[in-house]
Write a structure and sequence with these properties.
The chain has 141 residues and is α+β, with helices and mostly antiparallel strands. It has two helices and three strands, in the order ααβββ.
Length: 141
């Protein structure tokens, strides 16, 4: 009986040790992709040409993220400005010096379920990883 218990505990620990680096790597890569896309959208949106982040830019962003294996419909975008003006309207771009803020989030998608093998509680199923950025608009009318 002891040997069966030791085997089960050893097997569970081995499984966790073998797969732990894989899901942690997936987590790190997803977070990096989200942050990279946030920085890119802010760089383009706050440039002197635009001064906003509209739905077309967000749709293009979704297609780029799909290329990295993320589900495009699961990504949430929150676009705002630091002075309360609309930051998504191409007809009224943010003037130079206004802060353009972007927050992107994506669900963890059960990446931490394997932690149950060693007795750790996984992350809440509604939790999301987030990437945030702010950049001053360079648009001059």
């Amino acid at each position: 009986m002891k040997s069966i218990l030791v085997f089960v505990l050893f097997a569970a620990t081995m499984c966790w040790m073998m797969f732990s680096p894989i899901y942690r790597h997936v987590l790190v890569v997803r977070q990096a992709v989200l942050q990279q896309e946030t920085d890119y959208l802010l760089e383009v949106g706050a440039s002197g040409t635009y001064g906003y982040i509209d739905t077309d830019m967000i749709d293009q962003s979704r297609s780029r993220l799909a290329g990295f294996g993320l589900r495009p419909e699961a990504v949430e975008y929150e676009v705002s400005s630091d002075n309360g003006l609309g930051a998504t309207n191409p007809a009224a771009p943010l003037p130079r010096g206004s802060g353009l803020r972007l927050t992107m989030s994506y669900p963890y998608e059960n990446l931490f379920q394997i932690d149950r093998l060693i007795g750790l509680a996984p992350v809440d199923e509604n939790a999301r990883m987030r990437a945030f950025g702010i950049k001053m608009s360079e648009y001059v009318p």
